[in-house]
Amino acid sequence: MTSNNQILFEQSQQLIPGGVNSPVRAFRSVGGTPVFFKKGLGSKLWDVDGKEYLDYINSWGPMILGHAHPDVVASVQAAAANSLSFGAPTGLELEMAALIHKLVPSMEQVRLNSSGTEATMSAIRTARGFTGRDKIIKFEGCYHGHSDGLLVKAGSGLLTFGEPDSGGVPASVAAHTITLEYNNSQQLTDIFKQMGDEIACVIIEPVVGNMNLIVPHLEFLTTLRSLCTHYGAVLIFDEVMTGFRVALGGAQALYNIQPDMTTLGKVIGGGLPVGAFGGRKDIMQCLAPVGKVYQAGTLSGNPVAVSAGLTTLKLVQAEGFYERLTAQTQKLMDGLVQAAKSAHVTFSAQSVGGMFGLYFRADCPTSYAEMMQSDRPAFNRFFHSMLESGVYLGPSAFEAGFVSAAHTDSDIAYTIEAAHQAFATVKAG
Ligand code: KE4
């Protein structure tokens, strides 16, 4: 019998490119029909056929409390009753800026917008305005949203600048972006020696979630920090995914490295559209209406979205919140590794706070090149078996997974049980 997912997907493709509003949702990396959801509650989702799933995507990070948390829903309802938007300042934005500064002290000043893409695009423009320089550095496998200058891959040689990594990005724009290898301190040092005084900023995922989960070598981050300081380049930590996900203070608290600017998103909106960028006051003062760097947004600091974010950020400050989330996520990793071992499947896994990486390779990758060596067909078989069992993982071997505070011990146990079956399917090939 044709599922409602298939019917909706067929129809959606007539009116929406690929049938989705964001490419990863189309299941092209894993094959099959994407799942259309109609309800979420706590750790669970229900699709349009009424099938129940345990959710390990959490909307790609925002739903750290689980779906439809009653306090978050109530704050959205209360805010909405006072109008959905003013296009004028509200006290809620001041409250959010103050809370972000309290939890991420390096963000001396903060500006809110509506997505992680806007946050990173704006942070880079601010860094360019502050330094008067054009070139930026990013790292292969890191994703910072879809603004033109960030959809760039490494040029043919180290010193040839970026080439577009997407249609529609002019070569002249890509040329300002240098793409280096994550965790490669020597390459970073060499490029700064060559042209450090031309680098406006370096943007990095301090823990990577977009080439699956890759953790930094501490020495790589400390080298990056000292090079940026020495050459006057702005160090931007893109914590859109890691902010309030890996620790209350984000990756910068975990690794005790202070960036010059930070970008945030996902968790700070609690599921509604909120992005933020901020950092050193001397840099942020470059922004209009004070300075000459223009940046704006009709719904920036939207009161309903900010209310959802404020309630979320208040709840994650509960005593022991991250200890419990970290322990629950690690318990899942240990169980999956054990299940793979008993099925004699080559597999590794790791987690940082409430985000995790699953790899069909013997050890956890530390670079894009190592990640590309993982067994994608094996992941795809694993993914579909888990989906069949009602466990919803990210539909790509190159995405991190997420646990919420709503995932119970029995959810974790059920997931590990489903994985025994899934690894057997992988083994069967
Ligand atoms: P948004 O524009 O999607 O809100 O944020 C862009 C962004 C920026 N920086 C980091 C580190 C991010 O992870 C993201 C977005 N993450 C992806 C997940 N791989 C969002 C999912 C999607 O694109 O549909």
Compounds present? ligand KE4
Helix segment tally: 14
Our measurement of the CA-to-CA distance between the termini, rounded to an integer number of angstroms, reads 27 Å
DSSP strand count = 16
Beta fraction: 15-25%
The CATH superfamily label of the largest domain reads: Type I PLP-dependent aspartate aminotransferase-like (Major domain)
CATH architecture of the largest domain: 3-Layer(aba) Sandwich
Order of helical and strand elements: HEEEHHEHEEEHEHEHEHEEHHHEEHHEEH
The radius of gyration computed from the alpha-carbon positions, rounded to a whole number of angstroms, is 21 Å
Structural class: alpha/beta
Provide structural commentary:
The chain folds into 2 domains: 4-64 and 319-428, Alpha-Beta Complex (Aspartate Aminotransferase, domain 1); 70-315, Aspartate Aminotransferase, domain 2, CATH 3.40.640.10. The protein has a 7-stranded mixed sheet, sandwiched between helices. Strands 1-2-3-15 form a 4-stranded mixed sheet. The chain has a 3-stranded antiparallel sheet with strand order 13-14-16, covered by helices on one side. The longest helix is centred in the C-terminal third of the chain and has 22 residues, at 321-342. The protein is built from 14 helices and 16 strands. The protein has 429 residues and is α/β, with parallel strands linked by helices. The structure holds ligand KE4. Residues 22, 24, 60, 115-117, 120, 143-145, 205, 209-210, 238, 240-241, 265, 399 line the site of ligand KE4.
